[in-house]
Amino acid sequence: MNHFPLPRRKLRARRIRSIGAMAVVCAVAVAFDRWLRIQLFAAPQITGCVLLGVLVFLASFQWRKKLSVVGALGTASAWTQVHIYTGFFSVVLFGIHVGWRLPNGWLEGTLAAFYAAVFASGVVGLYLTRVAPRKLRLLPEQVIYECIPDEQRRLAADARQAMMACGGTEVLVRFYLNQMVPFLEQTRSWTWFVRPTARRRKELVAGARDLERYLKPADRPMTHTMIEWIERKDNLDYHRAIQGQLKLWTLVHVGMTYGLLLLALIHAIVAGAFSGGLL
Amino acid sequence: MIPNPGHEQQDGYIRPGQPRPPLPQDAVFPGIRDVPNARRVRAVVASSLVVFLTGVAILVGNSPFRNEVLVPGPLSSAHAHLFRSGDADRCKACHPAAHESGSKWLRGAVVGFDSSQDQSDLCLKCHQDLQRNGHGKSAHNVGAETLIAMRNRGSDDATGLGGGSMRVGWSRDVHGQIACRACHREHHGDVSLTAMSDDQCQVCHQRSFDSFAEGHPEFRQGLVRRRSQIAFDHASHFSRHFPEKVAAFDCRTCHTLEEDGMVVGLAHYETACANCHDAQVQQFADRGLDFLVLPTLDLQAIRRFGLDVGQWPVLADGDFDGALTPMMRLLLEGDATEGEWIRELDADFDFADVDPDDPDQVRQAVRLVWAIKGAVVDISEAGRSAVAERVARAMRARSSVFEKTMEVGVESEAFRTAMAGWFPRAVVEVPLYRAERERGRSAQLDAVSGPMANRPVQEDDTLLAENPLREWMQREHAQPSTAGSAEGSQQKPSPVPSNQSVRRHDREEEANLPDRQPNRTGQSNETPGQELAENPIRKWLNPDGSPDRNPEDRKDLANAGDAQEFSIPQLPTSETSPQIAMENPSELPGNPIEESPSSIALAERSVKWIGRRGGWAVDHGRMAITYQMTGHADPIWVAWADLLARSEGDDQWSSPASRLFLQADESNACRRCHTVDRLANGTHSVNWQFQGRDPWMKGFTDFSHRSHVGLESLADCQACHLLDSNRRNATCFAGTNASEFISNFAEMKKVNCIECHGDAQAGGRCTECHNYHVGSTRRVRTD
């Protein structure tokens, strides 16, 4: 099944074109820096200004929705593609700017650490945005992140109401109260959201199936309903975990971006002032 | 796809706002937590982070740790040791921004600060050696005019210099000059601050080339820009003089490598030259240097016009004759009252040119004679300080050369001895003459010079009453009347102002000269006949009938300072023996001229050696104060020659002061080897030593001989310095333009260097041979 909006062949062609364009831009940047240094221009200042502009451009990706002018310039997909490749280009530009050495001043070191964190979070985000949709698309229903708690509550309420209506045996009720309620009516621990597994779901499903042989024939269909509840709750949790990871990544990436911009601005002012002015 | 609130989406997504079954009222599940509002959390976290970082920045910016936080990296070792790590002000040493508050940094980051000193100026505060001539931030630390001149010197832009058209962009400072940081990037730790690529060197050079092997201009202008300071014709010495001496011409006899291998020194005179040339030098030294020579005067002509020169030695009576020696002229030009018009005299003025029938010329000659006597009196009394005053006045400036010369100065004892022997009354006559001349200046200056000198000394003369030679003067005038004094007695005495300033002769100094006073007193009571019969020169030359002293004895005595052994001769003067002055001296008994086989021989024998520092002598035969040099590199001669050469001059040796040096070195003994350069300020400098390379001076090109001569193929100097015996250059050392010369050596060719300095072997980078910063590297301030 092809889940990509574009055919794989077209996607590969687009990727090759993008990587090629980025390679050309990187080569131009390296050559430009070499030319600046040979011509005895203040190359770090010039590349620093370009890098600051690139960072601002990258940060404007999240302003796309807020600024209508920016948002009107291309689709979200195009913006994402440009954002990704510009982010990779910024690595080359950063290396050129610092002379391919590790900064060893406090301010520069902190700034480099912020840049590294933002870039790393961007790479992680690129991975998540590539993997998470595939994982979520495998689930039977798609729930937007903000709707998940209500869906879980609705599921828990439906389950409670169904159990009260069925008037089942003690074994069934005990299983529901002891096993199902903590699962259906509780939010799972944060460790599970970091690394979601199907172990709990499998245990409950296995428990429900084991329960079936102790039930009267009239109550046995109830176990199938309970298994559906377990699977739906687990799917909702999985949605919550995967989407939560995406939300957390966005939080880190965007938050660090603002810090990066602030430090970059301070660095630019200090570097400009202590080198005698840009102009 | 844009969501459509209120309608079920067809993509199966459950979205907020979509119609979903309502939650039961009792569906309260505290265990199910709401998801946080991601957008709100993101805004809170981002703004919190920004606020936090801003606060930290403000705190750090105003804390004592600001420098530690803002510094972009460690300094290079060349600078790191200059600053203590905890010094809060250390950034201010290099950055104007450190002097400003943080609020001004934003503007400073864009347009710089309004400070009068930019960052490069602060660099140059320590690197003062680069700031010489005010070109600290100019290309190569030289002016644009110099660069253009260098470019134009190449016939086809061989140097490839771009002249003043520098193309360095943002690396200029706020004043538009090249900033130090254009090439030197600090705060990168122990990374070389001076590393430059060939491409960077060629930023400013209009003619670009790939490497030394490919495209570098040929050495068309030669590697040597000026002649050697020591005149030496390699070709003639190689092809003629050394073969005549059957000696091997080995370059390394004279040229030695210094410790750093960068400097080719020249061996000392004693090692390199003395073997062949010392006899010539010693001959010049033995002949001596006339410091002051009395001219001979036609006293009859002088008296004929009612003029007088006062007491004057009889041996200097004759026709007008005698030139002014260079040092004598310099001292006369420094006369406080007479120097101005003496400077106007022709440089080759000679008393022989005075027409004895022209009253004006005779009057001027008399005036000059009084100036000479005044100089002798002044120096006799005040010694070195009088010389210093006169020289400073004549040269209108005091320089290091002047100070050096005044350290050696002259031997004032020689002047005292000369005055006592030639005109002892000058100590009285000169002040009187000056006083009278000062009084008569408003009337007829030139009319008062004559009679005053013969003015009889009055008993109640206040000047004489105070004069230490009063007693001597009284005895002098107690003698039988002479023609001169008779003439003088007919003149009305000129009153001398009671406040007349006359420098006293130092009584203590007189007391320390036991051979002077007895002679004066002893000689003065003798009649002229007795004086001539017992000629003091004869007595001195042969006090006990022993043979004449030989020069070696004189030297020994002079060096030992044993002046007491000699008596100062009291020579006959025109006043003490007027008959001698008026009659033919050769017919008089005891006349030294008659006794000596020749006047030259007499002069040599009548020399009185004075002083402790060497060869000062009073030659009573020639009426001269002479300095006989101790040999090569005599310090007194060197000092005076330097001083004379540094006096004002123009393009050539045409100024009077400059010609003094030529006259002093009339035998060309010094200038045969030591060239004279005209300096940029118009003065001249005698090159006493080979300058080689100043180890502190960096030129555009560096070359280490040591690293090259170690190679077997280059061990022979002529492997590179090919001597062309047809290129004689002996004549090019006579002028004063050091850049006009002929080299004895064939032009070097680049191809010889490329054998090794291709890209593969020794390398052909620009900085292998060339420096960017040129000039002296002395005096680097480190505080």
Summarize, please.
The complex is a heterodimer of chains A (279) and B (783). With 279 residues, chain A is mainly alpha-helical.
Explain the overall architecture.
- The complex is a heterodimer of chains A (279) and B (783).
- In chain A, helix 5 packs antiparallel against helix 10, helix 6 (148-166) runs antiparallel to helix 7 (170-184) and helix 9 (199-212) runs antiparallel to helix 10.
- Chain A is mostly helical and 279 residues long.
- Chain A has helices at residues 8-38, 43-59, 68-71, 76-98, 106-137, 148-166, 170-184, 190-194, 199-212, 220-274, and one strand at 142-143.
- Chain A has ten helices and one strand.
- Chain A is elongated and about 90 Å long.
- Chain B has 783 residues and is mostly helical.
- Helix content of chain B is 37%, strand content 5%.
- Chain B is built from 35 helices and eleven strands.
- In chain B, the strands form four sheets. In chain B, strands 4-7-6-5 form a four-stranded antiparallel sheet, with helices on both faces. Chain B has a two-stranded antiparallel sheet with strand order 2-3. In chain B, strands 8-9 form a two-stranded antiparallel ribbon.
- In chain B, a hairpin with a 4-residue loop joins strand 5 and strand 6.
- The two termini of chain B are 71 Å apart.
- The interface between A and B is large, with 65 and 75 residues.
Main traits of this protein?
heterodimer; A: 279 residues; B: mainly alpha; disordered N terminus
Question: Secondary structure elements and their pairing?
Answer:
The complex is a heterodimer of chains A (279) and B (783).
Chain A: H1 8-38, H2 43-59, H3 68-71, H4 76-98, H5 106-137, E1 142-143, H6 148-166, H7 170-184, H8 190-194, H9 199-212, H10 220-274
Helix pairs in contact in A: 1-4, 2-4, 2-10, 5-10, 6-7, 6-10, 7-9, 7-10, 9-10
Chain B: E1 13-14, H1 38-61, H2 66-70, H3 77-80, H4 105-111, H5 119-126, H6 144-153, H7 198-201, H8 234-244, H9 251-254, E2 255-257, E3 264-266, H10 269-272, H11 274-287, E4 289-293, H12 299-304, H13 326-333, H14 339-342, H15 359-382, H16 384-395, H17 400-408, H18 412-422, H19 426-440, H20 462-466, H21 470-477, H22 483-489, H23 507-511, H24 517-524, H25 528-533, H26 536-541, H27 551-560, H28 578-582, H29 592-595, H30 599-605, E5 607-610, E6 615-619, E7 624-628, H31 635-645, H32 656-664, E8 676-678, E9 684-686, E10 697-698, H33 705-709, H34 750-754, H35 766-769, E11 775-776
Antiparallel strand pairs in B: 2-3, 4-7, 5-6, 6-7, 8-9, 10-11
